[in-house]
Specification:
The complex is a heterodimer of chains A (110) and B (115). By secondary structure, chain A is an all-beta fold. Chain A contains no helices and nine strands. The N and C termini of chain A lie far apart (37 Å). The chains are: A mainly beta (110), B mainly beta (115). The interface between A and B is medium-sized, with 23 and 30 residues.
Amino acid sequence: DAKTTQPPSMDCAEGRAANLPCNHSTISGNEYVYWYRQIHSQGPQYIIHGLKNNETNEMASLIITEDRKSSTLILPHATLRDTAVYYCIVPSGGYNKLIFGAGTRLAVHP
Amino acid sequence: KAGVTQTPRYLIKTRGQQVTLSCSPISGHRSVSWYQQTPGQGLQFLFEYFSETQRNKGNFPGRFSGRQFSNSRSEMNVSTLELGDSALYLCASSVQPDTSGNTIYFGEGSWLTVV
């Protein structure tokens, strides 16, 4: 899998946008970027994924740079319930095998 | 539409025993994968099944095994339990067997405590 680098922790004020960066400089042309989050003691929750173009769904937006070497997950209006560990993953080699790193621990505060 | 369902949610076993965990994927999903999460090692891939065949396996000892049935339901088994097997075991499912833009959904997991 392409290696990803994320900051270990971030803070965000409730109601503000949370921008979570991810570096994946070794990504190859046909590899997707996936984002999951895990709230304490629960299973990972799928957020969004993308290949080249920016993507948006009801949960978040994913901005991928033109060279595809980095991306940013945007939670437009963070709430306390968005406090979680966020994982950026670039799987490769086929199969449904996700390699989870340490992720970014996002703390949303009032 | 029901999500990925795992049973049991919580269980306690004694060292040396074996355990079987069950996973029902989302309806229509044919690929099932398993993960182990511990505080020390984080989330680690165990194995993945598609069409009743194990297609990929993580770096775990042979005590960890699994299978998939014709209805895509899956079970994993851990034999001769050790204290270090205490973990959250997660099942994930998807329609397709690869990550080419395929969405993988996780269940809530089975908490195993070995005493």
